[in-house]
Write a structure and sequence with these properties.
By secondary structure, the protein is an alpha+beta fold. The chain has 3 helices and 5 strands. Strand 1, helix 1 and strand 2 form a beta-alpha-beta unit.
């Protein structure tokens, strides 16, 4: 009987997220109803096992606010997948769409969901 591939994340090989801790929360600002704002949402997403979260002081995209880079899982990276960068990714709907996409495998496994399409930063190349 052939091996059945494990679902994304079943073997601990989950996508990663790199978030700018300094600009997290800029998009919604004081109007964000969640204590801790966007960074709290991303931490909760990671706590639920959807991604590994790395917080950095700056991603050098300051004018874009709420910058997050979704990193492919190790398996996807070895297959040639690249990170997907997002700007102004904030609030419950954006975070839910991000989490759902990451749970299906994220970068390299499925296209960015339409709900996040306008948030993608198209990097040079």
């Amino acid at each position: 009987m052939p091996d059945t591939p494990a679902p994304p994340g079943a073997d601990g090989d989950v996508p990663g997220l790199t978030a700018c801790a300094l600009c997290a929360g800029e998009t919604l600002g004081a109007g964000d109803p969640l204590p801790g704002g966007q960074l709290a949402r991303l931490r909760a997403l990671a706590d639920r096992g959807a991604a590994r979260l790395t917080e950095v002081d700056c991603l050098d995209e300051c004018e874009r606010g709420d910058v997050v880079a979704a990193r492919p899982s190790g398996r996807s990276r070895r297959s040639g997948a690249a990170p997907v960068w997002f700007e102004r990714l904030s609030g419950d709907p954006d975070t839910a769409a991000l989490e759902a996409w990451l749970r299906t495998g994220g970068p390299g496994t499925h296209p960015v969901p339409p709900a996040l399409g306008e948030r993608v930063i198209h990097r040079g190349g």
